[in-house]
Write a structure and sequence with these properties.
It holds the Pfam family ARM_LIN_C. InterPro entries: ARM_LIN. This is Putative E3 ubiquitin-protein ligase LIN ARM-like domain-containing protein. The protein is mainly alpha-helical and 198 residues long. It is built from 11 helices and no strands. Helix 5 packs across helix 6, helix 7 packs parallel to helix 9 and helix 8 crosses helix 11.
């Protein structure tokens, strides 16, 4: 529980009430949260901690910068221990831990796509690709599959990672096609790897 909370805290998205909003925010960006959950998130989002003197664009840029710096810090020591741990946790079978690690990989991959250090990007993708593929193909919850598709889509924006992604394109095409009905991220990733729109 503490590990899950710690990983979600790194995402840096909180409400005034202290609720960690990272996973909900990512799923909403993917168009997954609709109905009561979405309304709840909108209400919480109205209470997200924001400096009222800072324009929203500046706040979003500050969050983006936080995630870029954090990603570089987590990966910058030249060791794969953080990535190996996340990858191992993705394969743990503990559904809550898998969900939180997929959420972590979603914001990490988003931040890495905006960094200019190809070494970090490719080493992160190489360490995570097999577990992301497994989650997309066999995830026990639809949220797991969506978070995996978000991460793969983020990595697809990095040319070196896209080349590696194309090596598993045939294997992930079917799960992406079925997931495309649920979220635009899967639809967009399917179009990238197959060259055709749904």
């Amino acid at each position: 529980v503490n590990c899950c909370r710690g990983l979600l805290t790194l995402g840096g998205c909180f409400s005034f009430s202290g609720k960690i909003m990272t996973q909900d925010w990512i799923l909403k960006q993917a168009g997954f949260l609709d109905g009561p959950e979405s309304d709840s998130l909108d209400n919480e989002a109205d209470n997200v901690l924001v400096d009222e003197n800072t324009p929203l664009d500046d706040e979003e840029e500050a969050t983006e910068e936080w995630l870029r710096n954090l990603s570089a810090s987590l990966l910058g020591d030249g060791k794969k221990s953080f990535l190996e741990t996340v990858s191992n946790c993705l394969g743990s079978g503990n559904l809550d831990l898998v969900r939180v690690c997929l959420t972590t990989v979603a914001w990490l991959s988003h931040a890495l796509a905006s960094l200019s250090v190809a070494e970090f990007q490719l080493s992160a993708f190489s360490a995570l690709i097999s577990q992301l593929k497994e989650s997309l193909e066999n995830g026990e919850r639809v949220e797991h599959k969506i978070l995996a598709s978000i991460s793969l889509l983020n990595f697809s924006k990095i040319p070196e990672c896209r080349v590696l992604l194309m090596t598993i394109a045939e294997e992930i095409a079917i799960p992406l096609r079925s997931l495309a009905e649920v979220t635009w991220t899967a639809k967009q990733l399917y179009a990238i790897i197959s060259g055709e729109d749904l």
